[in-house]
Amino acid sequence: MATSSLHRLSSQINRIPSILTRSSATTTAAAKVADRIVKLSAIDPDGQKREIVGLSGHTLLKALTNNGLIDPASHRLEEIDACSAECEVNIAQEWLEKLPPRSYDEEYVLKRNSRARVLNKHSRLGCQVVLTKDLQGMVVAVPEPKPWDIPFPFSWASFEFISAVLIQLRLVFSFDC
């Protein structure tokens, strides 16, 4: 009996260093995340200034979606090839020099799909701006979403109405070949 108690006690002592090691690893990981935090100011479409938080190495789009300023469903991919500028933002003048210049692809997407009729130097795609600690305090403005980005409340009545219209159109435009 004394031997089994001694064995249990020694196994518990052997586990204590691993518990301490794990808790310090957790503290170290938490400190690393805290070191990556980038605080930004975002002006929403209503003109309200909001403080948002992102992580260095992540995109501005991710910070804006995580803080509820851009609907994540409106920009499903963070690839420039499939982008149609739903994540377009305007960067304050004093922060433009701290960002790398727009890539050819970003420029092309903005010229074709910008919310503004004339592309201005403040326009950037949130999916192409990678946050760094140098951007701490950056001010961005989020324009109003495009009409097709605004979620449409679904109801069966609207579905039935659209179905009826489509059936009528099919009857009107049916051709015999």
From TrEMBL:
Q: Which species is this record about?
A: Populus alba x Populus x berolinensis
One Gene Ontology term, aspect cellular component? mitochondrion
Signal peptide range equals none
Transmembrane portions of the chain: none
**Gene3D superfamilies, from UniProt?**
3.10.20.30
> A single GO molecular function, which one?
2 iron, 2 sulfur cluster binding
Which PANTHER family is this protein grouped with? 2FE-2S FERREDOXIN-LIKE SUPERFAMILY PROTEIN, FERREDOXIN/ADRENODOXIN
Cite the source lineage: Eukaryota, Viridiplantae, Streptophyta, Embryophyta, Tracheophyta
Ordered alphabetically, the record's keywords are: 2Fe-2S, Iron, Iron-sulfur, Metal-binding
Q: What is one Gene Ontology biological process annotated in the Swiss-Prot or TrEMBL record?
A: P450-containing electron transport chain
Instruction: Report what the protein is called.
Output: Adrenodoxin-like protein 2
